[in-house]
Amino acid sequence: MATYNVTIHWHGIRQMRTGWADGPEFITQCPIRPGGSYTYRFTIQDQEGTLWWHAHSSWLRATVYGALIIYPKEGTSYPFPKPKRQTPILLGEWWDANPIDVVREATRTGGAPNVSDAFTINGQPGDFYKCSSNETVIIPIDSSETNLLRVINAAMNQELFFTIANHKLTVVGADASYLKPFSTNVIMLGPGQTTDVLITGDQSPARYHIAARAYQSAQGAPFDNTTTTAILEYKTAPCPAKGSVSVRPVSANLPRFNDTQTATTFTTTLRSPKTVPVPTEIDENLFITAGLGLNNCPVGAQASSCQAPNGTRFTASMNNVSFSFPSKISILQAFYNGVPGVYTTDFPPTPLLKFDYTGNVSRSLWQPISGTKVYKLKYGSRVQIVIQGTSIFTAENHPIHMHGYDFYIVAQGFGNFNPKTDTSKFNLVDPPMRNTASLPVGGWTVIRFVADNPGAWIMHCHLDAHISWGLAMVFIVENGVGESQTLEPPPEDLPVC
């Protein structure tokens, strides 16, 4: 029996009219209590590729996650030659401690949580840790064959670089959307993102390291600076003699931890394989800042509870609103049943105060307000969101995930977004479709989508330390006309609070 409350999020599934199955705790449901149960019921429509599922309650997703693969419909095929093999590769993050204790200690102190002790590939840390390298994951390949690797970043708090020694990666998909293929030596994934790559067995039969390590964009912030490995092994490679030292794999070269240029080059190269229906006329034009902050120590609080810099507590916000989760009913239940007092609909569509977002920000702006604020969208409205990073406390790359929707990333850049000049950079022809966008460190990203899925949908940073500090907001998309545009009734076994 489970020890903790839990919910499960089916990351990237559109959940058309089935928001009750989306999973984030106190957004679409109350948690499943120990000893309780809940059946998630949903239909996958017009989606294909690599997604994943994970717990969406506290830090349980550190260990509760897995791949979710949607194959082509019967009678159809991939937009590339069918690979000989397919292998999910889940990049994880591991603490030599109970992750729930780690986040609870951070909440108590107001400081940053302890960094992880290892990264993992399919649950194993690999050859460079003092843990057992005998269990290092081995991925098979044969000479001349082409295989599909479905790479998923399930880490809690870290963007990751990923590479394979001496092998080119042909990128063909991301977040369950196909892409215009291109070749690269390294890919970068933020937590929540998936990337499909083809590899060909075109090297000498041997063993080659598959490796991942941190991309850390926040200057001076502590991070897990270790490297996890698996082994790409040719079936015709020489096997180590019984009892002998294993044949050492060929080493992999990874970028430096702060190589923002490599990360940016990768994310800006992604393109849809053909012209896509990007909304060109916009009904809702939002400008949302995202970043960290510091709360003053509450009056009367002990110093042990204010261990962020200068005796403060870490916080995070969107448009200077630090999101507070309800505790007695979910936002979707409150919306569906008309329960007052759970949330307010005054989330600001633009910052209440304009400032130099990526410059030297006045300390008076470092402390956000706290609230459970949502933004309402009419069904069918065409939405553009400029997500602007800030340098409050520190600038950082944030993986921004939206529930219930895919969206087109039409542009990204560094510095402050300038609507007079940066709109000329918009790609309205073949931008990539994602469910999690990498907001560049000290920069901005522009996304577009059509609000055609009624319900309550959280948009948040997928660095779990940041969502626990309030880097989130919620869209409530109203019902349209007729049954096909209306949220389904809640299931009978929906957990109660």
List the helices and strands and how they pair.
Layout: E1 8-11, E2 49-55, E3 65-70, E4 85-94, H1 99-109, E5 118-121, E6 138-141, E7 146-153, E8 159-164, E9 169-174, E10 177-184, E11 186-189, E12 194-200, E13 207-215, E14 227-234, H2 260-269, E15 284-296, E16 312-318, E17 321-323, H3 331-337, E18 369-371, E19 374-377, E20 382-389, E21 398-402, E22 407-414, E23 433-434, E24 436-439, E25 443-450, E26 455-461, H4 464-468, E27 472-477
What is the architecture of the domain at 284-485 at the second tier of CATH? Sandwich
Strand arrangement in the largest pleated sheet = 5-4-7-12-9-10
Average pLDDT, rounded to a whole number, is: 96
> Regarding CATH, which class of the domain at 284-485?
Mainly Beta
In what range is the share of β-strand residues? 25-35%
Total helical elements: 4
Rg over CA atoms, rounded to whole Å, is 22 Å
What would you note in describing this structure?
The protein has 497 residues and is mostly beta strands. Helices cover 7% and strands 34% of the residues. The protein has a domain of 202 residues: Immunoglobulin-like (Sandwich), CATH 2.60.40. The chain is built from four helices and 27 strands. The strands form six sheets. It has a six-stranded mixed beta sheet, with no helix packed on it. It has a six-stranded mixed beta sheet with strand order 16-15-20-25-22-23. Strands 6-14-13-8-11 form a five-stranded mixed beta sheet. The longest helix has 11 residues.
